């Protein structure tokens, strides 16, 4: 079957199945929440006030602005604001008073627990799940909040993040499963299915200002995780939502000529169909309005292009990284939509394989075979387009320039994690991981020190887990264990010192990470989940291997370069 006819058939299947699941879903929910839309976002409902607060920098974190909860109808607040500023702008103090009178500041997440001294980290994580769990009915009390209601309880990451996030949640689920909280794990997957039913895709997070973009598509992996516990009927249950997500990511594919792109799909000159991030709208992200308007003012590029590429980077989950910067250094050169990411396409391969499995369980051999063939085609594309033969690893591809990216990043482990790589490619990638990304505290995100949070020296729990899974899958148990135990030691040392698990870690110095648009936050959902899985696999007493002499030399050289760079930039 041709791509054109297959996509048209997919749309027909989706129409029938989407109706069926919508009907069954509504019947199952006693009182499902009324879904909000992007039209309910702060920038739409009370935009003039939002931009005034952001411009005045009343809060150090732009997300605090759009998470403010109006105390009355937003239209009334905007009307009052316009009356009070008709003749002159508000002073900073007057604006502070206006905000205090009209908005409630969102509650702070506090992951501090009253526990006995020396509480083991595993028990601490188990104790944290109730602290990070939110009930489905909480949003109903705040009709003007930017929070999107959900039908079932869910876990938030923590810190500034008081909503359910898409790709974070897969790694949280790993921990819930290891904590015997299958009830909560099932609830969260049901919530994601409900979001697909309502919006046709899974948003970045459950805020109205996130409803125009997604995040790395881990829903298929969530379904696989549940199926491993509950059996193959899980595939049948979520088949409509799996189809819907696939159709959303592949929109426009049947209209493309070679060398063109539309939305999330790129058709290369040789006809290969791959995916990219795009992010949706051509305006600043509401949660980073001031930062992004300032960024756009620093470049001669059209502001709309900068905003689209920034949103695409946010959709990638790696916000921000030099992976998305044309010069590999400055955010003013952000060009995310020109990049076809290797990790996204490995996830799409997994989605296609999962759909093949789901259709097989459903008893439709024809559709199962069709999706299995799509996965075969994508595997071939990944192993050719993204393979850097000279370097011996996977990297991203710039479809506009027709060349590989020179970024060396932990995204290279995705083809191993999802079984895409050939044994020879896996061996070569493992060698590069060991030589270029392994640090005393775990796996570093990229080899570049940029000040962005998705670059060196930071290491992130999901990338550690994906690397460990991929290396173990390709018979690299020693390297897998080394990464896992080094990261575990880093997390345990920070926990021993602070009593917290945090969002990201400095794996070069084996401490708390930094960089990015906001302060490091604790909680933290995906770190908790990955640690629970590593503890179950490698044990609480796992001893991390010491860095080799070569690694020590590389790390010392890296620190010298970083120090010299900092000295050069100092006033």
From TrEMBL:
Keyword Nucleotide-binding listed: no
The keyword Hydrolase is annotated on this UniProt entry: yes
InterPro entries associated with the record: 6-hairpin_glycosidase_sf, 6hp_glycosidase-like_sf, Glyco_hydro_37, Glyco_hydro_37_CS
Keywords, comma-separated and alphabetical: Glycosidase, Hydrolase, Signal
GO biological process: trehalose catabolic process
Any GO molecular function: alpha,alpha-trehalase activity
Signal peptide range in chain numbering: 1-27
Superkingdom of this protein's organism: Bacteria
Name under which the protein is recorded: Alpha,alpha-trehalase TreA
